[in-house]
Structures are given as structure tokens and as C-alpha cells.
Amino acid sequence: MIELIIFDHDMTIVDSSYAIMACFNYVAEHEGLPKVSHELTMKYIATPIPEFCRGLLGDYRPEWLKLYREVSDELERKLIKPFDDTVPTLIKLRELKIKVAVASNRERPSVALNRTGLAKYFDVIAGAHEPYGKIPYKPDPTMINALLKDLKVSKENALYVGDSDVDIQTALNADVRGVGITKGNFTAEKLKELGAWKTIDELSELIEIVKKDAA
User: Fold this and answer.
1) Are 46 and 183 in contact (CB under 8 A)?
2) 115 by DSSP, 3-state: which?
3) CA proximity to 121, closest of 12, 3, 13
4) Rounded mean pLDDT of 173-199?
5) How far is the C-alpha of 102 from the C-alpha of 119, rounded, in Å?
6) Residue 25 carries which DSSP code?
7) What is the pTM of this model?
8) How confident is residue 44, by pLDDT bands cut at 50, 70 and 90?
9) Are 60 and 33 in contact (CB under 8 A)?
10) What does the alpha-carbon distance between residue 147 and residue 63 come to, in Å, rounded to a whole number?
């Protein structure tokens, strides 16, 4: 029976693509680099920051992260939007006594979640630097395993929901059921091919999955 649903952050519960693109374009303009497209942003959106930088800007330099953070607060507050059914779905899951958590490759995803007002809906918010200290990026299963231990839920009773190949591989590596959502850069067919247990187009579809699993 499903007791816990763990969510990726970007392009799973929020559309963060335009905020991320705007932040990278600030860095690109400052460094005299080519402008970043939305299509390219979507291609790398699930990856760790160093890989993200290399994919969008052609290299990774620590000072670029400092530049990114100069504008990220303002741009993310203005441009990151929860999907329309994010809050209603989280409320319904909590009514059904399902624990909910976030596992993101952001270093401190609680910052973005507080900006959008979503943090209050989650039991635990996990990133590469919080709340378990510095841990490996997904698809390494450490983050998922830490959440399972923290929330006292077995692998058999957990789902991990994400929009990318990284997310499906994370679920496989952690030996939990992976649900692919088509909000990002991957179709349902591709997510299934990658190993998703189920695919959904909208977060609200999770309610029926939970109810069927409990029947």
C-alpha cells in the first residue's frame, strides 16, 4: 500500500523552466556568452548545476553560480509557478494520510519551495545539501533512501514522481516504483521505455493510483 510519495521539484510540481532560463541568460550576458534558449534549458533541467552549466554555457565556473544567485531570488519568485493541480493534489494526498516529500538536485530546494508557498505541504524537503548534509546528486539513490529511513516507510510502499530520465533512473536505483510525469522534456512512451512503473500527464492522476493501490 502506498504510504509515501516523493516528488522531484523542477517540472514536476512547478514550472521553473522560464526562471532558470532567465537566470542563466543573466550569467550569459554578463560573461558575453550566447543566449540560452528555452529548448536547451528543458534538455538539461534535471541535471546537477555543474552539468547544467556545461550544457547551457559550455563550461562550469564556480563564479557563475555566484552570478546566478545574484538574480535567482527575484527571478524565481517572479517566474516559478506551481502547476494548476499541484496544491489541490498535495492537499488531497494529505487527506488520504499519504506522506509527501521532495527530492531535488537543487542544493537547497526549500528556498524555492518557500518562495512559491509550497514548502508547508511537505513532510520533508531533501536536496543535495539539505537536510542530510552534502549527499550525492540523483540518480544516486542516497537521497531517496534517506527519505525512506527518515519517514519510516519501506521501499514497497513508496513512489517517486519525476519528469526526466534522471528521475526514472533514480527510482530504479532506489528500488522504488517510479512514476513519470510528462510536464518536462520526455513523452509517456519515452518514460515507459526508461523504466517508469506508470506515467501521468497531470499530478491529480496520482489520487486514483493511490486509491486503486489501497483497494
Assistant:
1) no
2) helix
3) 13
4) 97
5) 9
6) H
7) 0.90
8) confident
9) no
10) 31
